[in-house]
Amino acid sequence: MVFGEGAKNAKIMLIGEAPGRFEEEIGRPFVGQAGKNLDEFLNILGLNRDDLYITNVVKFRPTKKDAKTQRLSNRAPNKKEIELSKEFLIKEIEFIKPKIIVTLGNVPLKALLYDKASIGEYHGKLVNLDDKKYSLFIIRLA
C-alpha cells in the first residue's frame, strides 16, 4: 500500500491514478519517472513538494503480467479498483481540506467527477467539487 504524503494542512492536493513499481518498492507516491517529471514541474512553478499533499486514487499497484517476459508491469486501475479506493480518497480530501485539488490524468478526474468525464473537456479548467468546498484543476500528463 502506498498512502499519500505531505503537509496535513496543504492548500494544494495532487491526485494521481495509482503507484507504480518504484512507488511500491519505496512506499511513497510519485518517486519514479512520473515523480521526476512532477518535481520538475513543481520547480518551474516555484512550489515545494513539502507544502503540498500528494496521493493517488488507488493505493496499491495495479499490474499485469507480460506474456513474453512473465514480468509484472503497471496498468491503469479498473473500475472496481477505483470504486474500492474512492471512499478512502474522499476521506483524505476531507481530512486535508485543500483549497485546490489538481487531478493528474483521467483516472483521478473520473473518480472525482463522473465516469464519462473527459480530460480533453476539462483540461486547464477550474471545476467546483462538492458544493464549492474545493476547486478542481485538471492537467494532462505527457
Please describe what this structure looks like.
- Helix content is 34%, strand content 23%.
- It has 142 residues and is of the alpha/beta class.
- A 6-stranded mixed β-sheet has the order 1-3-2-6-8-7, covered by helices on one side.
- A hairpin with a 4-residue loop joins strand 7 (126-129) and strand 8.
- The mean pLDDT is 87.
Distance between the termini: 25 Å
**What overall form do the CA principal axes indicate?**
globular
Biggest sheet features = 6 strands, mixed
> What's the mean pLDDT score?
87
Radius of gyration: 15 Å
H/I helix tally? 5
Write down how many β-strands occur, each being a DSSP E stretch of 2 or more residues.
8
The percent of residues in helical segments reads 25-40%
Low-confidence stretches: none
Strand and helix order: EEHHEEEHEHHEE
Neighbour order of strands in the largest sheet: 1-3-2-6-8-7
Strand content: 15-25%
Question: What features would you highlight for this structure?
Answer:
6-stranded mixed beta sheet, alpha/beta, single chain, 8 strands, 142 residues
